[in-house]
Amino acid sequence: MKRVIYVTNHTGGVGFGGREQLSLLHSEVLSEIFGSGFERIELDGVAGFSKLFGYINGVSRSSIAHVCERIRVSGARLVFLDGSNLGKLAEAIRESIRGVEIVTFFHNCEARFFLGSLRQHPSVHALAVLVANHRAERLSVRWSDKLICLNQRDSRQLERLYGRGATHIIPMAMQDRLPINLPQMPTPPSEIYALFVGGTFYANRQGIEWFVDHVAANSPIKTYVVGKGFEKWKDRLERNGNVKVIGSVDSLAPWYLGAHFVIAPIFDGSGMKTKVAEALMFGKRVVGTPEAFAGYEAVVDSVGAVCETAPQFLAAVESEAARRFVGIDGELRSHYEDRYSFRAARDQLTRILSA
């Protein structure tokens, strides 16, 4: 039985964020592929002042020593690193253990992601985070055998920054959260509404604020904002009277199922946007920016509308609002099942890791 060690800095619980959800899905996919040959290691090292040298996200000298020891003891010949910010670990494994294949999954081009964060909120801390992640990511690109990105855009960014692009592309995937007991689900508001879902990281805040300022007041329907942390932005987002902030919820399912469609006004970032795959999982169309649809180019023409300006957004919102309401569109959901589901991720990772 071939053995694999999966290394992550995320705990085993289900996180709200797309990155945490994808980390957990990949862990479960690898467990299914390798069975008893699978081992998961969660990093919890504290690096202190070594962060600027690549010791970030749980990577420390002690956690590196622990991972290397587990590789030697278990006889694993494949290590799957959950994130390009674990580059210091990739370097240590390559230098100390022979015959181990290192596969690194890139949730983002981290340097590009944190550059966007620095531009949005300039500070010494933001600059330090960018430098630390750039150094760690550079080591991942150098020392990994296989580099897996979510899309070609991220691969091209790696090529420009570090001289090497992805060896493989696997799109966003997520566990199916469509409830089995649909008739027993809580009932959302009876009015028709557009739905925005996401946490309060910089690109989401920037995007929904832009939508409120330039589109929402003229929209024929109300927009509901669901996501942890948005409660404190309630006054800012509700000031024109056509937006309702819900904030944290126990389950996203009733809000998706009750929505007429989903909006994704995201103008910056990296990787792929979880909210698009999530919308397709619930059978909902999406009105979003080119950034929101990065990585979804194969399906974008049949799942929604791409908008870059306020007039384009308003026209698309008006068009979607005029459509007949569909609780779960089967054709949209089939895109999720074929491309962005657990099964799709399992099949693609099986091909890549067996090559």
Brief digest:
The protein is an alpha/beta fold and 355 residues long.
What does this 3D model show about the protein?
The chain has about 350 residues and is α/β, with parallel strands linked by helices. The protein has two domains: about 5-170, Glycogen Phosphorylase B (Rossmann fold, 3-Layer(aba) Sandwich); about 180-340, Rossmann fold, CATH 3.40.50. The chain has helices at about 20-35, 60-75, 85-95, 110-120, 125-145, 150-160, 200-215, 235, 255-260, 275-280, 300-305, 310-320, 330-340, 340-355; strands at about 5-10, 40, 80, 100-105, 145-150, 170, 195, 220-225, 245, 260-265, 285-290, 305. The chain starts with a strand and ends with a helix.
- Indicate the proportion of strand residues: 5-15%
> What can be said about the biggest beta sheet?
6 strands, parallel
Multimer state: single chain
Helix content estimate: 40-55%
Overall 3D form: globular
CATH class group of the largest domain: Alpha Beta
Name its key features:
355 residues; six-stranded parallel beta sheet; Rossmann fold; alpha/beta; single chain; 2 domains; 14 helices
SSE map:
Blueprint: E1 4-8, H1 18-34, E2 38-42, H2 61-74, E3 78-82, H3 87-96, E4 101-106, H4 110-120, H5 124-143, E5 146-149, H6 152-162, E6 168-169, E7 193-197, H7 202-214, E8 222-226, H8 234-237, E9 243-247, H9 253-258, E10 261-264, H10 274-281, E11 286-288, H11 300-303, E12 304-306, H12 310-321, H13 330-340, H14 342-354
Parallel strand pairs: 1-2, 1-3, 3-4, 4-5, 5-6, 7-8, 7-10, 8-9, 10-11, 11-12
Helix pairs in contact: 1-14, 3-5, 4-5, 10-13, 13-14
